[in-house]
């Protein structure tokens, strides 16, 4: 069984930044939420699946949780996006780009950049559904 230290070494050798590794190993923002204000699930072309759960109060994102069936890239991207979106308005959170997430992570291996797109698409789907049901 791999230890945390050996996982960290392998991820570093693969090209993940320290921040991306920490998000993956510590499972930051990973979980579910009962009765979220916004929710979406999506399976990307690679086969990884993400779910986002968002708590919104007065138009401001109070908490974000996610789950993934996927690789370290998916977990790192989900954690980064969840971290970046908290305390932003729904509209501000929708402007978070894939480049913003990549820059926040500091670096992920090129073959894992699509995981950032998966996280952003799933999260945006949740917020767009929320906006559609909370007009006015």
| CATH architecture annotation name | Alpha-Beta Complex
Strand percent estimate: 15-25%
Number of helices: 6
Rounded to the nearest angstrom, the distance between the terminal CA atoms is: 53 Å
How would you briefly describe this protein structure?
The protein has 136 residues and is of the alpha+beta class.
SSE layout and pairing:
Layout: H1 4-14, H2 18-26, E1 38-43, E2 49-57, E3 60-69, H3 72-85, H4 90-94, H5 98-105, H6 113-133
Antiparallel strand pairs: 1-2, 2-3
Helix pairs in contact: 2-3, 3-5, 3-6
Structure characterization notes:
By secondary structure, this protein is α+β, with helices and mostly antiparallel strands. It has one domain (4-133): Sufe protein. Chain: A. The chain is 50% helix and 18% strand. The chain has 6 helices and 3 strands. It has a 3-stranded antiparallel beta sheet with strand order 1-2-3, covered by helices on one side.
State the main characteristics.
Sufe protein. Chain: A; single chain; 136 residues; 6 helices; elongated; 50% helix; 18% strand; alpha+beta; three-stranded antiparallel β-sheet
């Amino acid at each position: 069984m791999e230890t945390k230290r050996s996982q960290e070494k392998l991820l570093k050798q693969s090209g993940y930044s320290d921040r991306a590794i920490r998000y993956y190993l510590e499972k930051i923002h990973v979980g579910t939420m009962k009765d979220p204000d916004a929710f979406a699930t999506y399976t990307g072309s690679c086969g990884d699946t993400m779910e986002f759960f968002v708590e919104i109060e007065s138009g401001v994102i109070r908490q974000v949780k996610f789950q993934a069936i996927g690789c370290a890239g998916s977990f790192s991207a989900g954690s980064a996006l969840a971290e970046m979106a908290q305390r932003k308005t729904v509209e501000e959170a929708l402007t978070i780009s894939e480049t913003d997430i990549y820059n926040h992570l500091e670096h992920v291996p090129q073959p894992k950049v699509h995981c950032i797109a998966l996280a952003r698409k799933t999260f945006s789907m949740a917020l767009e559904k929320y906006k559609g049901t909370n007009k006015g």
